[in-house]
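Final report, Chapter 2: Outcomes

The project's central promise was a pipeline that accepts a single protein chain and returns its three-dimensional structure in a standardized token representation, suitable for archiving and comparison. That pipeline is now operational. To close this chapter, we reproduce one record exactly as it appears in the project archive, with the input sequence first and the structure output second.
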Amino acid sequence: MLQIKAIKLNNESPFTWASGRKSPIYCDNRVTLSYPEIRTFLSEQFVSIVKELYADVDVIAGVATGGIPQGVLVAQALGKPFVYVRPEEKKHGLGNKIEGDLKNGQTVVVVEDLVSTGKSSLLAVDALRDAGCQVKGMIAIFTYNLEVASKAFETKQVNLNTLTDYHTLIDVAAEENYVSKEDLTSLSKWRENPEQWSEERMK
């Protein structure tokens, strides 16, 4: 992910997230879709997790938009139905929030590309539960390991399994000399207190 620049690190010119928060790291897992070997590897890892932990699941659900392509690959490999969850109801047509054939009482594993604060990911879980489904767990490529997300997933009682995370990223980035010692210190400080780090960069 570092090699194909799906994960970008920049302390000098921080990235701005949708929330407005400044961050020295930006993860764009959509880039992985352009690399057949990498997207296949990721989907195979997801499939292994589902087979090990959620073998009897009925449906695979992707979170729009990042979780849709990987979710489709996982569902196809497992021979399972696929649906996806929009962030909000469609403004025209049927006004659906969940697209696809989903039945009350079905069990679901949710596929996400990354988890930051967990807000959008868990809104998808809420929508599936409101539709009468049982969410067995969520799988994602990457998580920032933010405490706010951990607490949110715990509160919603959702199992989260990821292929990699922020701690691993920092270790590998340091080993492979993707970042300097000074950058590494800043990245560690951001992880400890993202809000304070962001506020200081916005002054």
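Archive annotation: The beta strands are 7-9, 15-16, 22-23, 25-27, 59-63, 82-85, 98-99, 107-115, 134-143, 160-165.
This record, like all others produced under the grant, will remain available to the consortium after the project formally closes.
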